[in-house]
Design a protein that fits this description.
Elements lengths: L1 H36 L2 E10 L5 E12 L3 E3 L5 H7 L2 H22 L7 E5 L2 H4 L4 H12 L6 E6 H7 L1 H11 L4 E7 L6 H4 L6 E4 L1 H5 L5 H16 L3 E4 L5 H9 L4 E2 L8 E2 H10 L1
Parallel strand pairs: 2-4, 4-5, 5-6, 6-7, 7-8, 8-9
Antiparallel strand pairs: 1-2, 1-9, 1-10, 2-3
Helix pairs in contact: 3-5, 5-7
Bound molecules: ligand C2E and magnesium ion (3 copies).
One magnesium ion binds next to strand 6.
């Protein structure tokens, strides 16, 4: 009997697997078309100086403007784009469009000369031969000064690339482009590796920030990450600041920058222009 049940379970499992595989293939094919037709848009979330609440820059976040589903968030397609290699052409577009857009804002709003654009880069993209050269070409083509670009790589991607990452990041930083480690605290960094990565910024994962006011351990962890960053000469951006209380706590911990719904959701480009025009 147990055996029969076991078999039954396998049959259901197989069917689910089949459905999932078909859905994945559909998404993959649609992604291909989407990239061809440029059905993607970038949203921009302000990054704030927590001391004076001024805007120091924006993080670009991609959305898929799907012909039937409407705007689809990155968590639903970035993993598939990474598995299929489609992240390479998609990421290339994201990098180019982010730099073009930031340069446009710098020209139009000259009182905001020191703004940065943070661009998320997948490890798959980063390890492509010639990636540092593509970054250079992108800056030349768009006219964006290299000091205005910061690339974000997740902690787990960095750790999986190990020594290779050091060489690639060195080549990027030679061009005065900055590097931030994204989702810091979730990637099981070996501290002995961390200090060898040539980076400028740690971004504290929002899971720690969201738990700040509820959970005393979270506050200790955030405090420790900020001290670690400062000891290594890095600056810190806290993600996921949703309340005034998060902001106050982070300020008392000497966290210099942050982003989150408390300040602004990610915005389409025209709304950013409105914001910069007023500020
Ligand atoms: P991320 O780089 O860590 O980006 C932060 C995510 O947190 C964004 O989600 C943002 O909308 C969300 N967020 C910002 N403030 C708050 C807040 O106060 N509370 C909460 N709960 N969430 C907040 P989004 O846009 O859905 O992006 C998810 C992830 O997708 C990003 O995480 C990044 O890893 C990836 N991603 C987005 N755009 C790109 C891209 O162009 N290339 C690559 N490779 N990955 C991307
Ligand atoms: Mg990011
Ligand atoms: Mg993050
Ligand atoms: Mg994330």
């Amino acid at each position: 009997r147990a055996k029969a049940m076991g078999k039954g379970c396998y049959a259901i499992f197989d069917e689910d697997m089949h459905t999932m595989a078909v859905q994945r293939l559909d998404i993959e094919n649609e992604l291909r078309k989407g990239i061809k037709h440029r059905d993607f848009v970038l949203y921009y979330q302000p990054i704030i100086n927590l001391t004076d609440q001024s805007i120091i820059g924006f993080e670009s976040l991609v959305r898929w403007n799907h012909p039937r589903k409407g705007l689809v968030g990155p968590d639903e397609f970035i993993p598939i784009a990474e598995e299929t290699g489609l992240i390479v052409p998609l990421g290339e577009w994201v990098l180019f469009e982010s730099c073009r857009q930031m340069n446009d804002w710098l020209q139009r709003f000259p009182s905001h000369q020191e703004m940065l654009i943070h661009v998320n880069v997948s490890g798959i993209q980063l390890k492509q031969a010639g990636f540092p050269d593509r970054v250079r070409t992108c800056l030349q083509t768009t006219g964006l000064p290299s000091r205005c670009l910061k690339l974000e790589i997740t902690e787990s991607m960095l750790m999986s690339l190990e020594d290779r990452a050091v060489t690639i990041l060195d080549a990027i930083r030679k061009q005065h482009v900055q590097i931030g480690i994204d989702d810091f605290g979730t990637g099981y960094s070996s501290l002995s590796y961390l200090h060898r990565f040539p980076v400028d910024t740690l971004k504290i994962d929002r899971s720690f920030v969201l738990g700040l006011d509820k959970n005393n351990d979270n506050a200790k962890i955030v405090k420790a990450i900020i001290s670690l960053a400062h000891a290594l000469g890095l600056n810190v951006v806290a993600e996921g600041i949703e309340t005034a209380r998060h902001l106050t706590m982070l300020g008392s911990m000497r966290c210099e920058y942050g982003q989150g719904y408390h300040f602004s959701h990610p915005l389409p480009a025209h709304q950013v222009a409105g914001m910069l025009g007023r500020a």
